[in-house]
From TrEMBL:
Residues 2-249 form the ABC transporter domain. Keywords: ATP-binding, Cell membrane, Membrane, Nucleotide-binding, Transport. It is a peripheral membrane protein. The keyword Cell membrane applies. It holds the Pfam family ABC_tran. It is found in: Cell membrane. GO terms for molecular function: ATP binding. PROSITE patterns: ABC_TRANSPORTER_1, ABC_TRANSPORTER_2. SMART domains: AAA. This is ABC transporter ATP-binding protein. InterPro entries: AAA+_ATPase (IPR003593), ABC_transporter-like_ATP-bd (IPR003439), ABC_transporter-like_CS (IPR017871), ABC_transporter_ATP-bind (IPR050166), P-loop_NTPase (IPR027417).
């Protein structure tokens, strides 16, 4: 479903600030895979997601979705295939528009020739029933401006908008990190529910190791622009935070101490 082949990205080339953000990244996700991504600060996790969404292009390497080379496809075209939720609850929705208008915009995003955001009765029913799955009573607030919603409600709406069109790839970039613990828990369980419902192929960055272990069938750990550990299925189910830390130490020869991942246990 998704393939990254030999992806490299260098920032500020030939300057004192030169930085290898991605170093020979190879990754393949099969349909329905849910992969969690952990790693130290500056490891290249967001840069990798930006390569997939088209916000950045690699210096070398190929990005494929459904066996199609999309390396040079602009971001706005890829957005028909990709859903994304960011850390900032303000990033995924338009605050001055209503819940219904936001949903209509997201709905038309993956329709090739549809620019209208008008909502007929059938569409409104679809929006209502989709909102019901969140159990936040938003289905009765279709005309409320999104700017009035709490951070958790906005993030739940962003998640719904990113998933209800069944994207080929769902990208979650620390999407629970800015929420208080109870809201983060709610968004985590909604993520599980929405991803499982449509078996969405998903990549989720998190600094919360427990969340990385609890969700998904695959896990990768990144460090200094490289994927240093990949764990799948059975092996992932048996993984613990202690084992993960030991693996990091074994591979890198240094302790994972000052990382904010540790604070999220
Ligand atoms: N536009 C940019 N210009 C210059 N350097 C950048 C740019 N974007 C990212 N970097 C650098 O590339 C490296 C990888 O950054 P990236 O944001 O992908 O890391 P990350 O793993 O997501 O980190 P964090 O967990 O701290 O968010 C970092 O050293 C970062 O400072």
């Amino acid at each position: 479903m998704l393939k990254l082949n030999q992806i490299n990205k260098l920032f500020n080339e030939a300057t004192p600030d030169e930085k290898v953000a991605l170093d020979q990244i190879n990754l393949e996700l099969h349909p329905g895979d849910f992969m969690t991504v952990i790693g130290s600060n500056g490891a290249g996790k967001s840069t990798m997601l930006n390569m997939i969404s088209g916000a950045l292009t690699p210096d070398f390497g190929v990005v494929e979705i459904a066996h199609k080379d999309i390396t040079k496809m602009p971001e706005y075209k890829r957005s028909q295939m990709i859903g994304r939720v960011f850390q900032d609850p303000m990033a995924g929705t338009a605050p001055t528009m209503t819940i219904e208008e936001n949903l209509a915009m997201a709905y038309s995003r993956n329709k090739k020739r549809s620019f209208k955001i008008g909502v007929d009765k059938k569409r409104r029913e679809f929006f209502r029933s989709s909102l019901e799955t969140l159990h936040l009573n938003l289905e009765n607030r279709l005309n409320a401006k999104v700017g009035l919603l709490s951070g958790g409600e906005r993030q739940a709406l962003s998640l719904l908008m990113a998933t209800f069109t069944k994207p080929s790839i769902l990208l979650l970039d620390e999407h629970t990190a800015a929420l208080d613990p109870s809201r983060a828990e709610l968004i985590t369980s909604l993520t599980k529910q929405l991803v499982e419902k449509d078996k969405l192929t998903t990549l989720m960055i998190t600094h919360n190791m427990q969340q990385a272990l609890d969700l998904g069938n695959r896990l990768i750990m990144m460090d200094k622009g490289q994927i240093i550990l990949e764990v799948d299925d059975e092996e992932k189910r048996n993984l613990t935070i202690t084992k993960l830390m030991e693996e990091f130490q074994r591979i890198r020869g240094e302790k994972l101490t000052s990382d904010k991942a540790l604070l999220s246990i």
